[in-house]
Design a protein that fits this description.
It is built from 7 helices and 2 strands. It is mainly alpha-helical. The longest helix is centred in the middle third of the chain and has 20 residues. The termini are far apart. The model has no long low-confidence stretch (mean pLDDT 86).
């Protein structure tokens, strides 16, 4: 029995009212072989035809080994993804640092109070298996931007947090 392969290109974005939107941009047959190069060729063509090369933020794939090849090729084509990755990693490390101990959580809460921010909103940590968790993590961290800055002044162990330029990139993301 022969099964047909399919490839789907979907998008998720935040609209002008800050509502998360999801759309299927393309759904088409994808005959074998399903190599990383074939996936890269197909998806790169679709990404370009939709004019979203500079709007691409993340890619979600299953765990097939051919997808590793695709991601490697994608990184070579879209160099700016590396800049985004550095900022996302910094925010991720900030959240991990704060959530790493009760003392840090308490100090973070005190910094929230100092900046008149609600500490109950809670920091969200990135979950690699949930596609929208990066967005949620960045959104929550952005809310606490001033708190992270204050924490850096009151906790000498908290050092590697995003710069002003990097926070601006987070806002754009």
């Amino acid at each position: 029995m022969v099964t047909n392969g399919y490839l789907s290109l979907t998008t998720c974005y935040v609209d002008s009212k800050w509502v998360l939107q999801k759309r299927i941009l393309n759904f088409s047959k994808f005959p074998p072989p399903h190599t990383g190069v074939a996936i890269a060729d197909k998806l790169s063509g679709l990404i370009k035809s939709w004019g979203i090369e500079r709007k691409l933020f993340s890619v979600t794939l299953d765990n097939a080994s051919s997808n590793d090849v695709y991601v490697g090729l994608l990184k070579n084509q879209f160099h700016w993804l590396k800049q985004i990755d550095v900022v996302v990693e910094k925010v991720r490390e900030c959240v991990k640092y704060v959530k790493g101990s009760l003392a840090r959580k308490t100090r973070f809460s005190q910094c929230c109070s100092h900046n008149l921010l609600d500490s109950k909103k809670a920091l969200m940590q990135h979950v690699p298996t949930r596609w929208n968790s990066t967005y949620m993590m960045l959104s929550c961290a952005l809310y606490y931007r001033l708190t992270f800055s204050h924490l850096s002044l009151s906790d000498s162990n908290f050092q590697d947090f995003p710069s002003s330029d990097e926070w601006e990139r987070v806002e754009k993301m």
